[in-house]
Amino acid sequence: DTGVSQDPRHKITKRGQNVTFRCDPISEHNRLYWYRQTLGQGPEFLTYFQNEAQLEKSRLLSDRFSAERPKGSFSTLEIQRTEQGDSAMYLCASSLASIGTSSTDTQYFGPGTRLTVL
Amino acid sequence: AQSVTQLDSHVSVSEGTPVLLRCNYSSSYSPSLFWYVQHPNKGLQLLLKYTSAATLVKGINGFEAEFKKSETSFHLTKPSAHMSDAAEYFCVVSGPSSGGSYIPTFGRGTSLIVHP
Q1: How confident is the model over B14-61, as pLDDT tens digits?
Q2: Alpha-carbon gap, residue B21 to B68, rounded angstroms
Q3: E-assigned strands of chain B?
Q4: pLDDT, tens digit, for every residue of A46-67?
Q5: Sign (positive or negative) of CA dihedral A101, A104, A108, A114
Q6: Which of A115, B34, B82, B101 has its CA 20 to 30 A from that of A60?
Q7: Helix or strand or coil: residue B76?
Q8: Nearest-neighbour CA in chain A from B73: distance (Å)
Q9: Most A-contacting residue of B88, B101, B111 (CB-CB within 10 A), to test interface
Q10: What does the alpha-carbon distance between residue A6 and residue A91 come to, in Å, rounded to a whole number?
Q11: CA-nearest residue of chain A to B48?
């Protein structure tokens, strides 16, 4: 299976600790997205990359959050000084986009990383 | 600015009966619209998408949706529900953000319950 993978699938941490999640997109996909999903809600956009460039960040993404995609392949999402409100499912998606077609991109989602902050 | 409203948080049907999941959207531009399905412990999967071609869009597993601009709606339907259709369904609108990128906005989801 060469779909989107995320690691770890579950993470439990104590408040104040730093955590890092990894996403491996489908290999030929040039776009990579991060979302956060809380119980009873739809996914909320956090940020996305076109190759290695981070092109947009949501206002939801506080200074404690940082994402990288150093070589245009896998991506990491780090949360510093975690808070209980950070508890959520963090989803990664990838797509193959051409200029001018990004509105119709089909995004392929990974299984998510469930974060619990105690 | 864009938004999407899924009018029902839960829809309950009997197996073999029609399914209707309602979605209304708001967008300053001609949007692209999508329906995704999320089965328990599985990733989100695209059911279908509207990209300004045909207003009636057919998707996987017998689902289809009709784009109605005058009603700003994109309701999802299926003639006959199967037990395997039980899942969470998300309506998504994608339009340009202030930064110029197309950012998807998800609805809150509709939980489809299928009774034997």
Answers
A1: 999 999 999 999 987 778 899 999 998 788 999 999 987 788 999 999
A2: 14
A3: 2-6, 10-14, 19-21, 23-27, 32-38, 45-50, 56-58, 64-68, 73-78, 87-96, 102-106, 110-115
A4: 999 999 999 888 887 889 999 9
A5: positive
A6: B34
A7: strand
A8: 18
A9: B101
A10: 8
A11: A106
Is B65 in CB contact (< 8 Å) with chain A? no
- pLDDT reported for residue B60: 94
Give DSSP secondary structure letters for A9-65.
SEEEE-TT--EEEEEE--TT--EEEEEEE-TTS--EEEEEEETTEEEEE-TT--TTE
Place of tokens 């990664």: A92
Nearest CA in chain A to B52: A104
Which stretches of chain A sit within 8 Å of chain B by CB?
A: 3-4, 40-45, 48, 55-56, 58, 91, 93, 102-112
pLDDT score for A97: 81
pLDDT band at A82; cut points 50, 70, 90: very high
